[in-house]
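Render this sequence as a predicted structure.
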Amino acid sequence: MTRRAIIWFRNDLRLHDNQVLREALRNAEEIIPVYIFDERIFKGETTFGFPKIGKFRTQFIIECIEDLRKNLAARGSRLIVRVGKPEEILYDIAKQAQTSWVFCNRERTNEEVLVQDALEKKLWQIGQEIRYERGKMLYYTADLPFPISQTPEIFTNFRKEVERITPVREPLVTPEKIPSSTFNIQDGIIPTIQDFGHEAFETDARAAMKLKGGETEGLARLKYYLWDSNLIKTYEETRNGLIGGDYSSKLSAYLASGCLSPKRIYHELKKYERERGENKSTYWLFFELLWRDYFRLVGKKYGSAIFQLGGLSGKIEKSWRVDENIFSLWAEGNTGIPFIDANMRELNATGFMSNRGRQNTASFLVKDLKINWIMGAEWFESQLIDYDPCSNYCNWLYIAGVGSDPRENRYFNILTQAQRYDPTGEYIKLWLPELAKVPVEKIHRPDVLSFEEQTRFQVKLGAQYPKAAIQTAKWV
C-alpha cells in the first residue's frame, strides 16, 4: 500500500528550509500539500469587533498561496486549497485518501492550538497522527541553553546566553522534485479578498513599497536589500526612517507568513559579512531576529497570558478604559497630533507602519489617552500586513508596562520624537496634506496656531484638521 502524507501549510508558506516538507518526503511516497483559509480567522472578528485579518494581510496571504501553488507545480506537485475549518477538512481528506500522517508546524498560541488539538483527536479515531515540526524560529529549542520554561525574563539576558553559545543551523535546501499524489482530489480555487468581505484596492501611491506576498518575492527582497543595493551596510543609521522602501529591510511580512526562513536570512547575512564586511548594521538585523525568537519563546512560556490585560505581571492599571469615541480618534488618525495621525493614516491606507511609528502610536494610546491596550493590539492585528501574534502582543505588553521589560514606565514624548524623526515635517505632510502650508516651526504643534495663522496656512482646526485630543504643551 502506498504511504501517503498530508502537508498542512500554516504559517510556513515556502519550500526552502521547510522541515515539514523534508520529513514528509522522508516518510511518505506520496504527499498531498494543503492550505486552508480558516473561515473563523478570515471572516472572524477580534474581541472588540475588528476584522481579524484586514484587506491588506488577506491580499498578501492570497498572493503567498498563489506563489506556493506555482512553486509546487514547478516541482511536480499540487497545492490543495480550501476554505473552512481545518480540523474538519483535513480529517475528511485524510480519511478519503487513507493517509498515514498529517505533517505540520506546531503553533503555540491559543486559537491555533485549539485547531491542531481538535484535528489530532479526529485523526486518532481513524488510526492516523499529526507529526509536528518546527519552522518559525531562528534557533531550535533543543539547541538553547535552557528549557522554554526557564527562558530569561529579560531580553538582554536571553541575548547574552544565546548568541554566546548557540549555533544557528544551516537552512534546509529546497527539494528539486516533490512527488504528486495519485489520489483523485480537486485542487480548489484560491479565493479573492471579495470572498472574505473586502473590497478590491489599489496600492496607495504614498506607500513605503508594494509588499507582494510569496516566497519568490521574499527571497527577491532579501537579495535586493543585502546584495543588489548594499542597503544593509547602513541599516543601523536608517532603520528609524519613515518614508520609502529602503530605510528598513521590509522582511517582516515575509517572516510572519513563513515565506522567508529566519535561518536563511541569518546565513545570507553571515555570507554578506564574510564577503563585504561586518558592522553595526549587519549585527542589528541579527539582533532583531533575536527579538523575534525571544517573543516567540515568551509566548510559549506564558501562553494566553500575553493576550490578557494584566499581561505577564497581572497588573491592571485602573486608568485604562474602553472609550470607543476616543479610540476611534486614534485608530482613524484624527487625534489632532500630527505625528500620531500621520502614522495611523499610513497604517490604514497601506497595512504598514514603521517600527518608530508603532512605538509612538502605542505609547500615545496607552499612556496619554489612557485606553485599554488590548484595543490597540487588536487594531494592529487587524490592520498590519506583517502581524505576528507573539511579536505584536509582546511589544504592546512592553508599552503597557505589563511585560518582562524592567522599565515599567516606558513612555514616549511624542513631540520630542516627532521633532527628532520628522524634523522638517515631510512625513506628516505626506499623510496629512491638509497641513501642507504649515511651516516647519509649527508643523508638530498645530494646536497652538492662532486664528490668523490658521487662515494664513489654510488649515482651520476642527474643520480641515481635528482639534488636539491632548494639548502638545504637556510635552514641552
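Summary. The beta strands are 4-9, 30-38, 80-84, 101-105, 129-133. The radius of gyration is 24 Å.
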